[in-house]
Amino acid sequence: MTDQKKGTELTPSKVQQLMDWTYEKVINGLPGTRNIYQIVDDYSTKDKESAIRSLVNVQSLKTSLAGFVTGLGGMITLPVAVPADIASSMYVNMRMVGAIALLRGYDLKTDQVRTMIFATITGETLKDAIKSIGIKTGEKMAKEAIEKHLTRDVIKKINEAICKRFITRSGEKGIINATKAVPIVGGFISGAFDFAGTRAIAKLAKAQFTDKSA
Questions:
Q1: What is the reported pTM?
Q2: If 0-12 CB within 10 Å is exposed, 13-18 middle and 19+ buried, where does residue 143 land?
Q3: 199 versus 105: which is more confidently predicted?
Q4: 4-35 as b/e, with b when 16 or more CB fall inside 10 Å?
């Protein structure tokens, strides 16, 4: 294995750092971009479900991602050495899921909701994430548990399991090797951003973040 491969190899620790960094950027915005609250404000004139549909469509087709990828080598410094397409895809998906959660009445600044978002971008239900650390519960009970009763130590264990799942799914899809085939910006625009995968994550997010006002 070359040094370059070692440098970009995903580990649970790297994924956790990247997820934490990405979440902070989603909440506060990247340099020159709007934060998630400002993005959601764009849909304030629509009813909630129409807003979510529009948001998902826009995020799935977002061509402005090229600017994010380009910026990674300049004023934006990632906390760990990972392929830029992975960081970009995580950012867009996390922003989309966070916006869905926000539109449905969730507080993005809680550890519990943060963990729910982390699970969703890996394609897991909350029930699966909790089950992975040995806790058996139904879907409804899982949501109530993580929102109200789980301690920070338990949430930490769930996050560790989520990071391992992210690595597995990345390997299954060949995401880690995507940047080897084509130049980074062109490669990301043409292939690394998986439209179908993003739509699947959006569908899961809508199921996980049920409307709190309903």
A1: 0.78
A2: buried
A3: 105
A4: eeeebebebebbbbbbebbbebbbebbeebee
